[in-house]
């Protein structure tokens, strides 16, 4: 069971939209040195929706190569097409990738039965362990606790990233699944409380820019040291909030560039660089969080 601070890693790009693999290698080294528990390659924050299958797979496998067994790699393998998600899962099976992070199908708004059949088909297509990913604010579909419970009975569906930000969901899901089903927060603003209330970790945007701080906060939260966990979490609260002033990953890529973690803040279209009017707000959040002077 992977626990603690798991980074939803940005995919560094140059000004033409091509992936900057030397910068990606440096990011992997940064997280290994900072104590991050695991890396999610090409999730939402990694711009999965803007990469074709070949580039998606290449970024995941280069991340695995750069990690060289020193940190677990989880692959974003979700899609709004079941067949594409199966293709990605099969590409990453038996490769050294420890699990797939499988987002609910976006845009086409399946029913709960459709969601069940979608994830079931993916899980049964290969042996890659699957982590469900519920983020209705991005996908326009909500994977309900009762459906999560049904899916948890499938052998290689091992957990969920729950990104509603609603802490009541944690208790609802915990009541319906076995103790070995892994529960991750996908919401930095409530991630500390999520772990203090029995969650196992957070798949985090903030960890991109505050890796050591998030690792320590999670360490405290997982052993129930609420005072120390809250002290760090309160320090990071400005970035938890303002990294979503525009659509993720626009602000966090700008913050990474501001901190010198990547050369440029460029994204692939239709995503663009953080608007000038928002840049002072994100910079002020970095200052308040003591990430820059």
Percentage of residues in strands: 5-15%
Outline, from the CA principal axes?
globular
Report the CATH superfamily: Aldolase class I
Gyration radius, in Å: 18 Å
Mean pLDDT: 97
Helical content stands at 40-55%
What is the CATH topology assignment? TIM Barrel
Q: What separation lies between the terminal Cα atoms?
A: 37 Å
Quickly give the structural class.
Answer: alpha/beta
Structure description:
There is one protein chain. The protein is an alpha/beta fold and 293 residues long. The chain has one domain (4-224): TIM Barrel, CATH 3.20.20. It contains 12 helices and 8 strands. It has helices at 21-34, 53-67, 82-92, 112-125, 136-139, 145-152, 167-174, 188-196, 211-222, 226-242, 250-258, 279-288, and strands at residues 4-8, 38-41, 73-76, 99-103, 130-134, 157-162, 182-185, 201-204. It is globular and about 50 Å long.
